[in-house]
Design brief:
single chain; 358 residues; alpha/beta; TIM Barrel; Lyase, Ornithine Decarboxylase, Chain A, domain 1; 2 domains; six-stranded antiparallel β-barrel; binds pyridoxal-5'-phosphate
Length: 358
């Protein structure tokens, strides 16, 4: 019995997408970003499918520990660094790189008692105003880290872009300039580019790149799909029809009766809903593939079900296959129809969705 709703993961596509990263950034080392359960794809599975990357990046210390405990020996970086001495001790113990972004971390590095040393990435805030040292603080932080015995030399040097997905904006080049100026004279490998930087900003390429979304085959730009850059989607989300029905003109379908039938309509009920991670805010008209053909979503998305217009498929029947997104229906398009970004859809796949590796 196949499960009602399942995600098929094409793990070979990860390799393919990595090769696109290497083509775009031939001189850079690759830190594959596998935070948030590898954007919903399964952190350990994805790490095992990308053995030749130069490092992994996760957000949290716990994620890094899980990778180490599973036996991964590659370099791992924790992008949020550590927020307390216990986290610092864990990074030291498991040999996980720390991102250093605030003065409290410098204090902890200066007081921690340990027989280990730590690889660190000094993070500059070049305008995103999230994590990192700003202005003159970066030089002081660099000096402190250089003087700290626990810290391995040379340091890594990094920043993160706020708007690299906007290729018409000026802020990315500004951020690159701020970074390059501040780092002038500092010794250490540099890292700036996320996926949007790798694809859209050759000026952002440096010693290390940090691709996330593009490894999963998805475009970092809202107006384009991954296939336009030669990427292949890793995840496709599948379900099937569980009922085919008719309503007459004037009736409504689903919660709150938001869909009013303007004519007699054949429609189908699909076993997928927000309880699986299908977006609650997908608008009527969002495309769904039934038997490989596009049909529009109609009415509200419920927890376990959606309804689709089958006017174009009068012979569809319960059991017929449905695809919510994947190779033939870009997750980027579903995100646009739901006023969100593909990241949230991939990350939002729930426990109930069975994963099938391909
Ligand atoms: C998440 C993240 C990335 C990867 O971003 P994508 O847009 O998915 O490529 C890179 N660097 C940092 C610091 C991040 O937090």
């Amino acid at each position: 019995m196949t499960p009602a709703t399942y995600a098929v993961l094409n793990l070979d596509a990860l390799q393919h997408n990595l090769s696109i990263v290497r083509q775009l950034a031939p001189n850079a080392q690759v830190m594959a970003v596998i935070k948030a359960n590898a954007y919903g794809h399964g952190m350990l599975r994805v790490a095992a499918s990308l053995p030749q990357v130069d490092a992994f990046a996760v957000a949290r210390v716990e994620e890094g520990i899980r990778l180490r405990q599973a036996g991964f020996t590659q370099r791992i970086a924790a992008l949020e660094g550590f927020a307390c001495i216990e986290e610092l001790q864990a990074l030291l113990h498991y040999d996980i790189d720390a991102i250093i972004h605030c003065p409290e971390q410098l204090d902890m590095l200066n007081t921690v008692i340990t027989e280990h040393t730590l690889s660190v990435w000094l993070k500059q805030d070049t305008g995103m105003n999230r994590l990192g040292f700003k202005g003159p603080d970066i030089a002081a932080a660099y000096q402190q880290l250089m003087a700290c015995n626990v810290v391995r030399k040379p340091l890594g040097l990094m920043t993160h872009f706020a708007s690299a997905d906007n290729r018409n904006g000026a802020t990315t080049l500004q951020q690159i300039n701020v970074f390059n100026q501040a780092m002038d004279g500092f010794v250490g490998e540099r890292s700036m580019a996320n996926s949007a930087g790798i694809v859209g900003w050759p000026e952002a390429l440096s010693d290390w790149v940090r691709p996330g979304i593009m490894l999963y085959g998805v475009s970092p730009f809202a107006e384009q799909t991954g296939s336009e850059f030669g990427l292949k989607p890793v995840m496709s989300l599948h379900s099937h029809l569980i009922a085919v029905k008719d309503v007459v003109k004037g009736e409504t379908i689903g919660y709150s009766g938001t869909w009013l039938c303007k004519e007699d309509t054949r429609y189908g009920v699909v076993a997928v809903g927000y309880g699986d991670g299908y977006p609650r805010y997908a608008k009527s008209g969002t495309p769904v593939l039934v038997n490989g053909q596009r049909v529009p979503l109609i009415g509200r998305v419920s927890m376990d079900m959606i309804t689709v217009d089958l006017a174009s498929q009068p012979h569809a029947k319960p059991g017929d296959p449905v695809i919510l997104w994947g190779e033939s229906l870009a997750v980027e398009e579903i995100a646009r129809c739901s006023d969100t970004i593909p990241y949230t859809l991939l990350c939002g796949i729930t426990q109930r969705v069975q994963i099938i590796e391909q």
